[in-house]
Write a structure and sequence with these properties.
The protein is α+β, with helices and mostly antiparallel strands and 192 residues long. It contains six helices and nine strands. The longest helix is centred in the middle third of the chain and has 21 residues.
């Protein structure tokens, strides 16, 4: 009987660890950005709210879990920020929010060094048009090519070069002036 209970408990634990769910959005516990690539784990997840509107569910995937922003930013290798829209947003709203987040968490010299690449990101977002409720936008960092924007499983635009650019993106959520303090805690696995 003890073995049966232990086996049942183990199955429940393993099943629970397969995916997380936030606001009805399922997030895989583990994934790969490319076939045969390294496995990434869900570091944390949360909801981006603006005023009292729920905007999107975000998940942060890393090669290994990290609980401090500096550790996440310093971690080498592939990464993913996944955003599942909880409301419709126009391309301008989305790109403005990303640009503002980078500006709020980067000094003047960093902003100047990133300017052309920020323009590339804005062009990709504008080409996407409107993000509808349920759409999934992923910002992937692939060390060999840069930042890849993926919308509902389809890559958009060309990769944007530089790990410094991806770190600037991560600071939107994990920087000293994050877009949402509760979301920052969630992405760091500290939500409670």
């Amino acid at each position: 009987m003890k073995r049966l209970l232990a086996a049942t408990f183990l199955v429940c634990v393993l099943t629970a660890s397969q995916a997380a769910e936030v606001a009805g959005v399922k997030l895989e516990d583990r994934l790969r950005l490319a076939p045969g690539g390294p496995e990434l784990v869900l570091n944390g997840a949360g909801i981006r709210t603006r005023v009292f509107f729920k905007v999107y569910v975000a998940g942060l995937y890393l090669a290994e879990k990290r609980a401090a922003p500096g550790e996440v930013l310093a971690l080498p290798g592939p990464k993913r920020v996944s955003m599942t829209m909880l409301r419709d947003l126009g391309a301008q709203q989305l790109s403005d929010a990303l640009v503002e987040g980078i500006r709020n968490n980067s000094n003047a010299a960093e902003q100047e060094a990133l300017k052309a690449r920020i323009d590339e990101l804005v062009a990709i977002m504008n080409a996407i048009g409107e993000a509808k409720t349920g759409d999934r936008i992923q910002l992937d960092f692939l060390p060999d090519s840069g930042t890849r924007v993926v919308v509902n499983g389809e890559p958009r635009g060309k990769p944007i070069a530089g790990e410094d650019f991806y770190r600037a993106l991560l600071r939107i959520w994990l920087g000293d002036k994050p877009v949402d303090g509760d979301l920052k805690q969630g992405l760091l696995g500290r939500a409670g």
